[in-house]
Design goal:
Shape: globular
Low-confidence stretches: 43-47, 228-242
Number of domains: 1
Largest sheet: none
Helix content: over 70%
Structural class: mainly alpha
Radius of gyration: 20 Å
Length: about 270
């Protein structure tokens, strides 16, 4: 455990020195505050609460931005150390290769968690100041927690990429490809498949399984169907009533999406010739 904390602390210090923590926190806070105030303008017309609008807006922001930030943090975590020669130096100490992967992962996750909690927390604080009170803060807190979990998924995927490839440029290309696949291409392909199928082959259970195959979709369903007010405003009230995916199943899927790539990264680094 001590080795893990030492390596994690090194990553956090590197993040402070490289301004990653400051830049990410400011970016998320600025976008969250913008969406909080500009996105809640139509609430009086549609009858939705400011909190519901904010959760929907920030959930959409999270799906696009947090995976990208996580992949940028992690894509060269292993291959970059290898190129600089610092990985050999690190492994010359009494530390196992899997401890390097887990320790660096914890450090990068701490950076992302801090930026997400502070950035989105600023939006919650703005709502409290503007309204005096905000009902449903538990929904907002769940959105922040699940955003951090989604970030953990893509940090782990970034580590898997970094441990497999042997070139930083190639790792960066794979990272962008993964982001495009899960954030854009997968949902477009799934929508096209549903339109073509017209309910003949794809059952509700199969649709649930297809949603779980994409961590971004699992995050979306978890946040946009968990609350009645949020699901109504997000246009997913029907899905929230018919879906067989409970919050426990969705969270478990996100945890599995984190553990499997991270384990694969540790295994790949353990077999890598240095």
């Amino acid at each position: 455990m001590r080795n893990l904390l030492i390596i994690a602390d090194k990553e956090i210090r590197d993040g402070l020195r490289n301004r990653w923590i400051v830049a990410t926190t400011l970016l998320l806070a600025a976008l969250a505050l913008t969406l909080t105030f500009l996105g809640s303008v139509p609430t009086g017309t549609v009858g939705a609460s400011r909190l519901a609008v904010t959760v929907v807006s920030l959930s959409s922001l999270t799906i696009f931005l947090v995976p990208l930030i996580a992949l940028l943090l992690a894509y060269d975590a292993v291959v970059g150390e290898f190129d600089r020669g610092t990985l050999l130096l690190l492994l010359s100490y009494p530390v196992a290769r899997w401890q390097v992967v887990i320790g660096k992962f914890l450090g990068h996750l701490a950076i992302l968690a801090f930026a997400t909690a502070v950035g989105y927390g600023a939006a919650a604080g703005a709502l409290l100041v503007a309204d005096g009170h905000v009902a449903g803060l538990a929904t907002f807190a769940r959105m922040i927690g699940s955003s951090i979990l989604l970030g953990a998924v893509f940090v782990a995927i970034g580590y898997l990429i970094s441990a497999i490839v042997r070139d930083r440029g190639l790792a960066g290309g794979f990272a962008i490809g993964v982001w495009l696949l899960f954030v854009l291409i997968y949902d477009m392909a799934l929508l096209g498949l549903l339109v073509v199928d017209k309910g003949r082959t794809i059952s509700a259970g199969m649709l649930d399984a297809l949603l779980l195959l994409n961590p971004a979709d699992a995050f979306r369903v978890l946040n946009l169907t968990g609350s009645g007010g949020v699901s109504q405003f997000a246009g997913m009230a029907g899905l929230s009533e018919d879906a067989g995916l409970s919050p426990a199943v969705l969270v478990s899927a996100l945890l599995l999406w984190t553990v499997l790539p991270l384990g694969g990264a540790a295994l790949a680094l353990g077999r890598r010739q240095l």
